[in-house]
Batch of 4 targets.
Target 1
Amino acid sequence: MIPERHIFEKIISGGQTGADQGALDAGLELNHPCGGWCPKCRKSEAGSIPDKYPVTEHSSPEYPVRTEANVVDSDGTLIFTYGQPTGGTKLTAELARKHGKPCYIFDFEGEALNQDPEVIWQWGLDNDVYVLNVAGPRESNHPGTQVLVKTVMLMLLEYARKCYEVMKD
């Protein structure tokens, strides 16, 4: 029997450079549903968030407000870090705790980039994470984050697709 809903059926983020855009890049490349809340006027550290990213403007221009909206609108959050979360990434983890949402921390300093995506998949399965919020550092704080996150997300979404193909058979 094929389940009605799929784990990680939609990816959301705030559209900021770095981790947020890396997650959206993976979704767009695979034609996977993605979106999320961004600040009013599509504000990011690099100026306006490019139109290719299907994010919705929040009524507030403040980053923390859109961060909380994405946490609330998701079933769980995957946070990418380099060591302990700081800044907006730390706030995301705190908001996930506040709202009782499961949170998976992927530390680039401690996790192998080619880690079997089954670990994250199993976390999503165990926690019924259908809408996955993805967060992490901005590109200016950790250059290369956007590509690293996109790589992990491509592996994860491909793994999820294969799992559902097996379920159909």
Note: The mean pLDDT is 93.
Target 2
Amino acid sequence: MKDNKIIGSKIQHMRESKGLSIEEMAERSGLSVEQIERIEGNVDFPSLAPLIKIARVLGVRLGTFLDDQSQLGPVVCRKGDLTGDGIGFTNNNTEGRKHMGYYSMAEDKSGRHMEPFLIEVAPSAPGEAFTPSTHEGEEFIYVLQGSVEILYGKNSYQLSEGDSIYYDSIVSHHVHAAGNEPARILGVIYTPY
């Protein structure tokens, strides 16, 4: 499993290899210079939306930051393979606490178009404000344990164990644990590149 330091370094290396300055990356991605510096400097790991914007500027898939792409055939992910800390995502801002831990279920699969994750969703802090995300692509979520709330556009969906949702990611959305208990979900993310 990759850690945030490897991902930040990989993004920096890819940006530099393409001859892009941080300022050029910020302008092309719509992100701030500070946000890119924090990502590359391993200060924080953002939500998916900024990573997708960075991937587009660099001309790579989202999964390029997360894997080694070594397997051409099928990749089997055993229950015991999903250990360690995973990758923590914040609530889409530089002050955000890490509220989701992502465990890639196909990090070695080369040329894939979907990103399957086992996701641990921490309970929200009392009064926590949610910062929605928007990006191209589609997402599928299946609740394995606990319950989650998905804010999607102007609607809210409560999902419990065994429920699922499939939606277009271009619509403003946010996924968080419902109530005070953590949740565990299977998330499959598709982003065209």
Note: Confidence is low (pLDDT under 50) at residues 89-97.
Target 3
Amino acid sequence: MAAKYEQKDTILHVENLSIVYGEKVIISNIGFTEKNTVRPDKPQGQTIAFLGRSGRGKSTLFRALTGLEEPTTGMVLIPDFEKPIVNGQQPAKKVQEGDVGFVDQKYTLFRHKTIYQSLKYALRNVKISSEEKDEKIITYLKDWGLQTCRNQYPNELSGGQRQRTAILEQLLSSGLYMVLDEPFSGLDVGNIQNVKDAFRLINDSHELNTIIFSTHDIELAVELADSIYVLGYLKNDDGTLTQTGTILKHFDLKEMGLAWQHEFTADHLDITKQIKQIMLAS
């Protein structure tokens, strides 16, 4: 049975985005809008997946979404929560570096800081008392299964522990938005489950929390995401492919009644097959 939900204010708006290096157009005509999803029975953050074959521009797009790359054309807009609501609308602003958390595949951490020290540093610009920061960190460490290694350094942690710490660092410092580039790459079944649990924790903690991730595992994307974008190369009139990445297809799993399901159904499998065909042809 499809879950009930409402779509409210815009949380992410990308308009006519392109990035060009020299004479090489990496991505172009990227445009989409995501809205705050509200469910009547629970907090529900957004989970947005980007799929596509290697070299189609996913990482470049992610750099633009996180403010690490200045677009050649277009813009990335997010709500400006530091400004008051005007006529019932939250003002928007262009995304800047630091507005959106970014976790790469290396899970880069401070080598000289323990988990606890790293998380305390991530909260350095948050305007709450030291006691409140300590309480917040302790809660996160407990919820994310890291309390027993709070005083350990990165070289003493497992890959899964490093990844969870890196996610928490970005979540604490950047707030509502989190971009993860290939978070499931190279993980065993146990650590894949840990990342899935991390997604759930992020989603459940605030309805505006928004996860944006890429993966080569189509089934995982269909299982976890409520919105999926497929990036690839368009076909020219002669059947050859362009060499510029763009959005080929959007699957709104909320609208299709396939989001937030506890089982992977035949309908989910059908979407997986459709996405695979699009990717193979692009």
Note: The mean pLDDT is 91.
Target 4
Amino acid sequence: MFINKSDIEKVKQYSIIDYLSSKGIQPLKEIGKQMLYYSPLTNEKTASFLVEPTKNVFNDYSSGQKGDIIRLVGLIEKLSFYETFKLLSVLKTSVSVSSFSFSGNSNKQLKMVINSVQPVSNKSLIQYIENRGIAINLGKKYLSEVHFNNNGKNYFAVGFQNISGGYELRNPLGFKGKTANGITLFDKKTNKVNLFEGFFDFLSALQYYNCDSFKNTTVILNTNNNLQSFLNTLSNYQVINSFLDNDTSGRSTYYKIANLGFEVYNQSEIIYPNSKDFNDFILNKPLIVT
């Protein structure tokens, strides 16, 4: 498919530094005009991945790969040139929520300011939701398109609101962030509660059960670190359907609740015992042909 050269040049302006930051990859130090990283392409133990921000190019000595943002994203995301161009061309800017320090200190979280919250309409976000196995009408019921400012730059992502009034943020490049921390609660005044770790698992369950809401009260932790906030409400419930991840953190959270004496059903081991989480399950569930 023909791509206009001028459009390619525009896409090449997409910052490699911001792209790596959106993946949670931060530089170790600055060497002259270049930033030094551990390679995102190999499991190197000695950092040898260099980015020159002014030219917006990279050189990975561990893999022998080098080039521009299109080359890098294609290698990391395992996309063709056209697929990479299409992805970058609809993302007008990248998401970067933390500054990096070259003194060895941990990254300082920057305050994000929401500019606007609107129905999801951006093509890349719609594609992102659908690529997670979620029907767009269902996604639009619970997700918003959040535009926010961080450190003087404007970004956008899908947002899922929590009880603190903040938003859990995700974007197609793997960015995860939030504007304020808290669980999400859909209170149906029932003595049974459905418990999820993340909102994509919640949406995956709705997709799986072919419904747009649950009859039972539903809680999304948004992170297992919010378990105590959920435990503070447990006196209201008698039965807990746990849809947590099938990993160390998910199992630990499940046993903490079960050991308190509540009637807990581990739906994760019943429905998707061989999948990491509900979203992974519906993405890899084989189609049934009748």
Note: The longest strand covers residues 153-161.
